[in-house]
Structure formats: structure tokens, C-alpha cells
Amino acid sequence: MKKITFIGILLLIFNFSATVSAQKKGFYENVQKKNVAKVLDDLNAFAAAADYTNYFDLYAEESTFIGTDATEVWNKKEFMVWAKPFFDKGKAWNFISLKRNITFSKDGNYAWFDEVLDTQMKICRGSGVLEKIGGKWKIRQYVLSTTVPNEVIDEVVKAKTPIEDSLLKNLKNQ
């Protein structure tokens, strides 16, 4: 009887310990999701306010921005040069996140996200990867994509064909 009671107590302790550990992990993940979401929300707010310095401080030094045009693949310095005239005008772009998913690597040092954005281009999708660097989340890669409703894809393909045929030829010959 003492043996059964002892085993029961051990099982209760183990179950309690596992529950507390799971709660801590869930709490930590929720805090980290809020931290990553804040970086992405700040990114949108800084662009809308044309705050060049704070906007680009959210990117890791070695980062990549991939824009909606097939030719737009820039490292941070190149993206800064491209974006500066927009920020200098006092208004860059105004993206509002409508829906966002955030997932973490097992070690908790990387987060990747996808989000649906309300933009001047109508609905777009932002996606990318953040890395925790020096205790702060920094954007390593950001991909901005326009969405195309299936009902109009043929018209969009027709419109972009003359523009992209030469690009496709060049890419295939590289």
C-alpha cells in the first residue's frame, strides 16, 4: 500500500511539473509572439511616419528585402538607398496588418511570419524571418508580395507578359 501511495505521489509531482513546464513554455512563446508582432507593427508605423532611421534599425545588418517586382532583391544597404527618396518625401508607405501568423524555431532564436496587409496596392502579403540578435528581434528577410485574385489572373498575366518576357529570357540565359 505504501508503495502504491508513493508511486501515486511521484506521478502527481511529475504531472504537476510537466504542466508547469508547459505553462512556462506557452507563456514564453506568447511573450515572444508579442515581441515579434511589435517589431512588425513598428515597421509599418515607422514607414507610415517616414521614420527612416527607426525603420531600418529593425533590420539585421545582414538582411534581405524582396519586393513585389521580380528585380527587387536587395541587401539592407541597397534597400536603404532605394527607399530613401520615399522617406525623404515625408511619406513612405502605409501597411496595416490584418492577419498574422508567427512561428518559432525550436531554440527560440528565429521566428518566421506571414501576414495579410492592407496597402495602397490593396491586399498584399508580407512574410519573412526574424532572428534574435543581442536580445532583440531583427528582421533577416522580408518578402512583400501582391496578391492576385484567381478571377483576374489571366488579365494580370496578359498585362505583365510584355514586361517580364525579356526578364525571363535573361534569367534563363544566366
From TrEMBL:
Keyword tags: Signal
Superkingdom of origin: Bacteria
Keyword flag Nucleotide-binding: no
Signal sequence residues: 1-22
Record bears the keyword Ligase: no
Cross-referenced InterPro entries: NTF2-like_dom_sf, SnoaL-like
Domain SnoaL-like: 36-148
Name recorded for this polypeptide: Nuclear transport factor 2 family protein
Organism: Kaistella montana
Source species taxonomy: Bacteria, Pseudomonadati, Bacteroidota, Flavobacteriia, Flavobacteriales
